[in-house]
Amino acid sequence: EKDKLVSEVIRYILFKNQQNFGAPIKREELTCLVTKNYHQRSLPSFVINAAREKLSYIFGYELREIQRVRPSSNSNKHSSQP
């Protein structure tokens, strides 16, 4: 079953990449795909990591996690120094 889930995630990533080349795929989308039928807490991380390894080994893809950068409230204030 885990191999089937890994294959589903890989397939989803490949199709999504074909539709929008280079566009990020949210981890939440992959997690929803995995937890659709299974509700184990650690399963999404396991499946996504296994998919990451297979994508790298088979297709030469590198799956990266991007951290969202949120501007702090201090950076929005303008300095009045000359």
TrEMBL record:
Record domain MAGE: where: 9-80
Transmembrane segments: none
Recorded superkingdom: Eukaryota
Protein name: MAGE domain-containing protein
Organism from which the protein derives: Nymphaea colorata (pocket water lily)
